[in-house]
Design brief:
Layout: E1 4-10, H1 16-28, E2 35-41, H2 50-64, H3 66-75, H4 79-104, E3 108-111, H5 114-125, E4 133-136, E5 153-156, H6 159-167, E6 175-177, H7 184-187, H8 195-199, E7 202-206, H9 215-222, E8 230-234, H10 239-248, E9 255-259, H11 265-271, E10 274-277, H12 281-290, E11 294-296, H13 303-314, E12 317-319, H14 323-335, H15 337-346, H16 354-366
Parallel strand pairs: 1-2, 1-3, 3-4, 4-5, 5-6, 7-8, 7-10, 8-9, 10-11, 11-12
Helix pairs in contact: 1-16, 4-5
């Protein structure tokens, strides 16, 4: 049997989309008799390219002008307004998609970010692409940029997301409640309160792969607490923040271990007494896999607020909206560890084997393709 080419497209805007793509890739590689798989960052790093300009502008808005992003997010949620934004992005990235397809010749496309999904949906609408398209939505909310009738399947985090897609005209049979995919390493670590946690109440502070959110301010606030013994702070790719915190350590009362980007997150979560983090959906899902209790703060408006609402409703996290509340909530949880244990147990209700479910969906969608001719793409630009 001829192997099918699975191409997973992420976008280097935050690391959540990339980590989800890697989790899917990791699972698909366990079925080599069925598929060849490749993961590609769809957005170019060429500083003069349109897609890189889109990426850098998007990141800058998230980091420096979150209220502007708030306005953009909510103003694009109406169908007609969302259609304008979707169309502009899809047309801007169409040529990039054509080049990728001509070079990689995939049998199926899997997206963990809506930007490449929109470009592929446009080509399918123009009858220039005829392969299955799978959208993996890595948030507990729906942005209009994700909604395309040309998609053959959506894999979503939870049942309410499926309902929202159906309300927006997506066929129910196309939507699979898979959960958000996480790498196997997170399923191999398990948090539980023990003597080590009690002897060293360590607070792990994270802000996603880009080191966003109020990490510096949160550390300064929590450093006042006597119920904390030590901090571990992960700054991701944010080198400026790493340098600032390294200099700041000498002024703090507690032992603070500062890390840049690291692949030790599963172990750090297990060792921590409590995770304080910006509520990126991937980070939250990784935390529920490890079962570490969470305090969520400084969400990006829109999707991350929805993530925080969902996690708090499940009982595995507390969403802090004010600085003073951060201090009181962390104090309460570390003073009464039984509350941490209850949050850890609640995490079980949030976790699915997303990578496996998505991988099986990919294999299922590829099966009918065996009878089709191999030429799926009209290559003219």
């Amino acid at each position: 049997m001829t192997k099918k080419k699975v191409l997973i497209l992420s976008a280097s805007i935050g690391t959540g989309h990339t980590q989800a793509a890697r989790a899917i890739e990791e699972y698909v590689r366990t079925i080599p008799e069925e598929c060849d798989v490749e993961h590609l960052d769809f957005l170019s790093n060429d500083v003069l390219s349109i897609d890189n300009i889109v990426k850098e502008t998007y990141i800058k808005i998230l980091d420096v002008f979150p209220m502007l992003y708030d306005l953009m997010y909510y103003s694009s949620q109406g169908y007609k307004k969302g259609l304008v934004v979707k169309t502009l992005i899809a047309w801007g990235l169409k040529r990039r998609m054509l080049r990728v397809l001509a070079e990689k010749k995939p049998d199926i496309l899997v997206f963990t970010h809506p930007f490449p999904a929109g470009a592929a949906a446009l080509l399918k609408r123009q009858h220039r692409l005829d392969i299955p398209l799978v959208g993996v939505i890595t948030d507990f909310a729906i942005h209009q940029l994700w909604v395309y009738p040309q998609m053959d399947a959506y894999c979503v985090a939870a049942s309410p997301i499926k309902d929202l897609l159906v309300e927006q005209g997506i066929e129910e049979k196309k939507v699979i409640v898979s959960g958000i995919p996480v790498r196997k390493a997170f399923n191999q670590e398990r948090w539980h309160w023990d003597a080590a946690h009690g002897a060293n109440k360590n607070v792990l502070i994270m802000g996603g792969g880009l080191g966003m959110g109020s990490i510096k301010q949160s550390l300064a606030l929590l450093d006042r607490l006597e119920c904390v013994d030590s901090f571990t702070v992960v700054t991701g790719y944010n080198a400026d923040l790493y340098d600032e915190l390294s200099k700041m350590r000498s002024e703090l009362h507690h032992d603070v271990h500062v890390l840049g980007y690291t692949n030790q997150i599963p172990a750090l979560m297990r060792q921590a007494s409590l995770l304080v983090t910006k509520p990126g959906a991937l980070t939250c899902t990784e935390a529920t896999a490890v079962q570490v209790p969470m305090v969520l703060y400084s969400p990006i408006p829109g999707q991350e607020e929805a993530n925080a609402t969902y996690m708090q409703s499940k009982g595995c996290a507390r969403w802090v909206k004010e600085e003073n509340d951060l201090v009181s909530v962390v104090t309460d949880l570390l003073t009464y560890p039984d509350k941490l244990v209850a949050m850890s147990e609640a995490s079980l209700d949030c976790h699915r084997d997303g990578a496996r479910i998505i991988g099986q969906t990919i294999v299922r969608l590829l099966q009918p393709q065996a009878a089709k001719a191999p030429a799926h793409l009209i290559y003219e630009h």
